[in-house]
Amino acid sequence: MYGLSLGETDDEEDFSADSGWIPWFCALKGHELFAEVEEEYVRDNFNLYGLRQRFQFYEHALEMILSSEAPEDDDLADSEFLEIYRDASDLYGLIHARYIVSPRGLQAMREKYLKGVFGTCPRVLCDRQHTLPMGLSEELRAAQVKIFCPKCEQVGPGGTCSV
Ligand SMILES: [Zn+2]
C-alpha cells in the first residue's frame, strides 16, 4: 500500500531536521548569536510562561517557529506573513533568552563559543581570544548585544570583533 509501509524513510523527513524555520532563522545574516532552540523546548508550555500576552499573533507566531519549512520568497513579500514573522522573531528571541540559561542551551552556546562563532577580541595581546555575547536580554529590541572577552575582561560592542 502506497505510503503505509513503515520503516521506509521518505526524503522530506530526512531534510526536515535542517530545513525548518528555526535553522533557517538562525542562519540569517546577523543572527549568528542565536543558537537553535530545540523544538522540544519550544513545545513545553512551562518554558513559554508569561509570553503569550506580549504578542498580538502569539499562536500564529509559535506555529511559524515550529514550522518544519523555511519561509519562501513569496512569503517574505506577503505583508500578513511579515506581521506574524515580526512576532515570531521577537518570540523566538524571548524563548532563546530563556533557553540559553537552561542546561541544554548553555551547552549549545558553549559549543558556539568554542567554535569562535561570537567573534574574537580585537586586542592584539588577546591573540584572537574567542569572545562571548552578553546582554541577550528579555526586553524586546533592547540595547544591542555586547561582546565580552574573558582574557582582558573588556566589554565591547557586538558585531565588530569578528574576523
Ligand atoms: Zn580581549
UniProtKB/TrEMBL annotation:
Domain of life: Eukaryota
SUPFAM superfamilies: Casein kinase II beta subunit (SSF57798)
A Pfam family matched in the record: CK_II_beta
Assembly with partners or alone: Tetramer of two alpha and two beta subunits.
Family (UniProt): Belongs to the casein kinase 2 subunit beta family.
Name of the protein in question: Casein kinase II subunit beta
Organism the protein comes from: Durusdinium trenchii
